[in-house]
Each structure stands twice: as C-alpha cells, then as structure tokens.
Amino acid sequence: MWKKLKSLETKMKLNRRTFGALSIASCIGVTNTIYAQSMPVRLLVPFAPGGAVDQTARIISNALGEKLGQPIVVENRPGAGGSLAAAELVRAKPDGTTLMLALDTQAGNHQTIKGLRYDTFKSFDYLNLLVTTPQILVVRHDLPVKNFEGLIAYLKAHPGATYGTSGIASAGHVNSAQMALARQLKTTHVPYKGAAPMIVDLLGGHIDFAFAGVSVLLQHIQSGKVRAIAVGSSKRSALLPDIPTLSEFIPGLEYPTWVGLAAPIGMPSDVRSKIIKATQEVLRDPDIVKRFSENAFDVVNSTPEVFTARLKKDSNILGELIRQKVVSID
Fold first, then answer.
1. Does the record carry Signal as a key word (predicted)?
2. Mean pLDDT (whole number) for 55-66
3. How many Å is the maximal CA-CA distance in the chain?
4. pLDDT at position 9
5. What per-residue confidence (pLDDT) applies to 160?
6. Averaged pLDDT, 269-273
7. Rounded distance between C-alpha atoms, residue 95 and residue 103, angstroms
C-alpha cells in the first residue's frame, strides 16, 4: 500500500513538472511571437538603389508597415545577381521580421551561380508576386540606329558590341540572349549590380545597348538621353505609344521584369497569413496602384501559388538558353 502511494505521488510530481515545463515553453513561444511582431521589419533589396526593386520598396514600405503595425526598414544588399541578399534571408529567423523583394534573377541564379547555399525552390516562402514592368530595348543616344532592324544590322556589322543588364540571369539578360539567338548575334554581356549603375554607363556611352524595365528607363527616354527601340510587352505601352513591341519583330519574345515578396521558409501560419493579407491590401490601395502606374509598373498582387509558378516558368526559360549555350554559367 505504501509503495503504491509513493508511486502515485511520484507520478503526480512528474505530471506537475511536465505541465510546468510545457506551460513555460508555451509562454516563451507566445512571448517570442509577440516580441517579433513588435520589432521593425527588415526589407532586403538585393540590388543598388534606383532600380525596379528599390522603386518597389520605396512605394510600398510605409503602407505595408502601417498595415503590419511595424516599421519597415529598407536595406539594400546588392551583389551576385541578388543571391547575397537571398542568402541573408535564408539565415534569418522565420519570424516575419526579415523579408526580401525578389527580382526576376531569383528564378535563374541557381543555374548561373555556383555554390549557392540555398535551394531556390525549397528555402524560400514566395508570398506575393507584386508587380511587373515591361522590358524595353534602348541604345545609347549616339549609336547610329533608329529602329529595330537598324540595330540588328549594326550588331551584325559590329560583333562583340556590348550590352548591359542588372545582372546575370536578369530579365534584361534573358531578353538579350533570346534576341541574340533569334537573330544570330554575337554580343558581349556586361552585368551590373542593378539597373541604376548600368544606366550610368549607358548614359556615359560605355555600353551600346540594354534591356531594362520601362520603370527605370522612362525618364531617360523622355529626355532623349537614350533611344527606345522596342518594348517587351504583348501590346504597346500607353506611356510610349510610338514604340513597337519586340514581338512585332520576334514573335513570342516577352519576358518582363518582376518583383515579388519572399520570406524564409517556416514562418508561423498566423504571421505568414498576416503578411500576405497586409501586402494584398496595400496593393489594392488606389494611391499605391496610381504610384506604380505612374512609374510604368503593372500591379499583379498574386497568391503564393501564382508567384511560385512564375518562378518555375522563368527558370525553365533560362535553363533552355543555358542548354543552347546562349547564356553561359559562371
């Protein structure tokens, strides 16, 4: 009898300890979540200031911070086609306090950069494909060409002519490679750490032509500092109605710049849902839509599934260019 009582007492003590430990762990978890949701959110921008990703960050950061109830701190982390910022995102705690704006290079870095320490399709939570902007083909102002066929003739007569992009595997790189494949051109790729430094060299006459988002080139086209040749969209741009589409010369050539919101994999479901909801609400705000439109962006405001599908589609397009040796691997 005494032994049974002692055994029962021991079990009760263990249960109390277990309950206490679970209660403490639960409290710690709740406290950590509350703490994380009161901290500033780091919004990583994988490219230099002045490009499409940076523009997107500046347009949405304040409104998104208000929706989340947390200030947004924009941090530019340029380098390696956006993979440096992506690697930093992977190392961050999946608590919603570190997010990243992914550019289209995210779809191809795993194929062009060796030694990435993350899996493009398994290490990230792709929350929302935010916006796209058509790519536009432009030439330096003193290049002696006026139209697309004139440019093709010039490039065939000058093999090795240089073109700039915002990085290897960027939309600009893919469009240039597709054009080279379709018209059998031999050109020299000059990658930059974003569209802004590339445009500086284009304006300075250090490269011959470039593909980049209309959003970052529009002011330079309107001022006459570069000459627009063709726009990479299914229809002509309302902002540049006299500029033909690329598909008028090369059917099917359309690969826009896109920007989406990504997070580390493994966020708590309530935190994830909160961020997705806040982002979608921001992109439905008429003032935000207007600001994007004025800067030549089209608001997409997608689901995670749509974003992931776009990523895989563009990865396949780049993969085919690599197989055909039009795009080389570092």
1. no
2. 97
3. 105
4. 47
5. 94
6. 97
7. 22
